[in-house]
Amino acid sequence: MTRDRRSPASPPAIVQGSREAGFDALLELLQAGPSDATELFSNSLGLLVERLDMDLAMLTRITDLGYEVFWWRARPGFPAEPFLFSPVSAFYDRVLSWPQRTLVIRDARQDPAWRQDPAVVTRGVESFLGAPLWEGGEVIGTLGVQGSSPRDFKHGEVALVAAVAKLLSKTLEIEDLKSQLQLAREALELSSAVVEDSALQSNASGLPNRHYLDVWMKANLTLARRNRESMSLMLIRPRHAKDARAMLESLRGADLMVDMGDGNFLLVLPGTQPEGVPILHARLEEHSEGLLGAAATQWQPEEDDLHLRSALQRLRAGLRESIADPDNPLRWSASGEDSI
Q1: 67 C-beta neighbours (distance < 10 Å), count
Q2: Strand partners, 128
Q3: Which residues pair with 143 in a beta bridge?
Q4: CA separation for the pair 88, 82 (Å, rounded)
Q5: What's the average model confidence in pLDDT over 314-334?
Q6: pLDDT tens, residue by residue, 87-131
Q7: What is the DSSP-derived secondary structure letter of residue 41?
């Protein structure tokens, strides 16, 4: 959780003045050109707290464990910590249910939709404005501004919260793009280093080895998880290492074949869909003496680890079954299947 550690007693000058000048203050903030995204987050949330006369403004990110607060600003003296570690999820759930509209709660204790909600009654949040944060057409979090007393929000104040949410959504998209570009740059640098390092090749087959695979995973799997890209994998056991080298002709430029050092070869197939794996297996088998035992699976970014441990466990179990049953030379294992 990221916190703004600047003294709340000295807010930026742009957040002083009447509420009606909120959009002018927002324009001044943008014209001032904050040096980085964190400064823009801080100043924008500070503007909302001051202009709307509210207690707390927070940015949350949606995670598997609920709402995670990653930036916030509070009015001086307000005890924000309980809400930072446990936001009033009922409000944020409603924001996600109706992402095309700004959630406006003027008096929760008098509102039939909220006055019976235990979290609202016990936590003392009586007024709230909430808007979604978007990235790539999907809601990835929320902007929430809350107060401990009723508020008769004006149309301009509601519009200001919606405008700030859109501004911060664009900022988050830009920061994510910067991060992806950095990862791509690191991947390119690693790939260049790999080409020049003979220690990353197997002496027996001349193919990339396990050390190469480790470098490749560091450069590529984090980016694949960020983009939620699945990846097809195949583990084969040709009769001879020379057969594996001949099989390279069937691979595409983005594909990778790794000599695992135990007689098995791992094929990493970015962009290959599950239905394309049997077609590739048939092509590989043309370069093999007899049937080619193989197992295939998909690495899933939300289920599998960044070291291929779980995926390799499925592949090894599937390869044993394939070798034991020559009538079914290609064994498919879906993610989540138990492996022996």
Answers
A1: 21
A2: 105, 146
A3: 59, 131
A4: 10
A5: 87
A6: 988 999 999 999 999 999 999 989 988 988 876 778 889 999 999
A7: H
Both structure tokens of 332: 């498919």
- Most confident among 114-123, 126-135, 193-202, 216-225 (mean pLDDT): 126-135
Q: Which of 214, 233, 88 is nearest to 148 (CA)?
A: 88
- The label of the residue with tokens 């000599």 reads 259
Report residue 37 CA to chain centroid gap: 18
The one-letter amino acid at 44: S
What does residue 146 show for φ and ψ, rounded to 5 degrees?
Answer: -130, 155
Residues paired with 332 in a beta bridge: 296
Q: Name the token pair of 230.
A: 């699945």
CA end-to-end span of the chain, whole Å? 39
Beta bridge partners of 129: 104, 145
pTM: 0.49
Q: How far apart are CA 76 and CA 307, in angstroms?
A: 46
| 256-284 b/e (C-beta count within 10 Å ≥ 16 → b) | bbbbbeeebbbbbbeebeeeebeebbeeb
Q: From its phi and psi, is residue 137 left (phi > 0), alpha (psi between -120 and 50) or beta?
A: left
Using an 8 Å Cβ cutoff, are 147 and 129 in contact?
no
Residue 56's Cα: distance from chain center in Å? 26
Contact (Cβ atoms closer than 8 angstroms) between residue 255 and residue 268: yes
> Given the DSSP bridges, would you call strands 294-299 and 330-332 parallel, antiparallel or unpaired?
parallel
- Sign of torsion over alpha carbons 51, 56, 61, 66: negative
The Cα 131–Cα 164 span in angstroms is 9
Name the DSSP letter for residue 100: T
How many whole angstroms separate alpha carbon 258 and alpha carbon 214?
11
Exposure string of 180-189, with b = 16+ CB inside 10 Å and e = fewer, is eeebeeebee
Tokens standing for 239? 């009769």
Query: Between helices 37-52 and 22-32, what is the axis angle to 10°?
Result: 160
Q: Would you say 105 and 114 are in contact if contact means Cβ atoms under 8 Å apart?
A: yes
